[in-house]
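Help wanted!
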Amino acid sequence: MATVSIPTILRTHTGGEKAVEASGGTVAAVIDDLESRHSGIKGRLITDGSLHRFVNIYVDDEDVRFAGGLEAPVKDTSTVTILPAVAGGMR
Amino acid sequence: MDEIVAHSRRDHPDEACGVVAGPEGSDRPERFIPMLNAARSPTFYEFDSGDLLRLYRDMDSRDEVPVVIYHSHTATEAYPSRTDISYASEPDAHYVLVSTRSQNDEASGPGNEAEFRSYRIVDGVVTEEQVEVVETYMFAHTGADDVPDNA
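Answered by r_m:
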């Protein structure tokens, strides 16, 4: 199973755990598996089938936005890191 | 605080951004980490996604969290915008805003004070907090590096 690193703001869904395990051959499948174990987490990451603008997901060192999006491949040995974007602006 | 203001002035007219990391649970901002604004914009800031991953890995390995997340506004007051609020996702962080708008005003010269304010942003609710300047945090650059390794 892949290891998924959970950011502070989503740890309410994982009972405070910083890292959990999930299986799946793609990022989308890993998120579905996460949802089955930690209900509510999927809605914090995906709306209408696409990744939230506010959220970055990495498979190992690669931002999935540049590596196939939600269809990016995940291996059993992969670490999937979820990080909220740090961004803002005056408007 | 001086470093945050200096960074904000240096990057003006673009928005500057960065964090001050500290030991998890301590609420002590100790390690100043200026970040590149990947948006290079006067109205928007964003940490580069690769930089963001490296930053969080680095903080994790030191058992640190982002105690302060700062950015500058270049033409408006130092108050969180709607965009800032929608992106804010560290409920334990102090969101520091610096306004460099006075730099637009040539006549008032470089000596004028930058606005420096701090907020909590939790579930879309903004709460301003008082800023207290404490000298001792200035030694922060050494951080854990001054503890000898037991190698």
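OP: Thanks! One thing I noticed: The first strand of chain A starts at residue 2 and ends at 5.
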